[in-house]
Model the fold of this input.
Amino acid sequence: MGAWGYQLFNSDNEFDVVISDIEEQASKLAKDPKLTLYEPKNKKRVVKKLNDGLFHELLQLFIRKEWKHGVIYLAVLSMRLGAIVPATALAYVGQTLKDTPMYQEAKTQVQKGLEGYKNNGEPWDFESKDILDAANASVVNEQQEATGGFQMLNVMEKWSLMPQGMPGGPNDMEKGLEEMLKHRKAWEAKQAKEPKPATEPKPSVELPQDEKDRMQAAVKAWFDFQMAP
Done:
């Protein structure tokens, strides 16, 4: 699916990478393989675990790992549940937020939560639109009419602003890139040893020039978006 907005909890990356890594560490520390922090079935039980020391253990772990997105999302998840987030932790999250790459819409939501959270057991509503909200808010356009009501909800994501997984964890992007480069070099070394054909094979289907131009324009727009400040 990708992302359907730039608010908190508006992308698969947040759920499959950041929240997944946080919940994995929480499960290990709490010795509870079924523990979840985003939408737990037994909210009171999870809040009690966080208040009894799990929040502090996770926060210290993420600080040691220098995982800024983990620090921020741990606080966000805890505030959504109404768990106690000490004033010192709120202040630390606020400082971390300032120099952490994130979409501005999400940053604004976090900052508003940090300033308004009462720490009285009442959950904080970050007012993020989920995928159904995004679908219901979309307007009928020519694309929907041409496809029987279907409309793409994805927004273009910027790599530099996407939340990252825990360093050294299974979703560590840098670690993943290193693995990709290693496999790429191995493939190139293998290709270099294989004999090359006398003539390069021609593609079986030649794209029309206007289609090539359209694809090149789309790729250029994507790269321009990624490189923009």
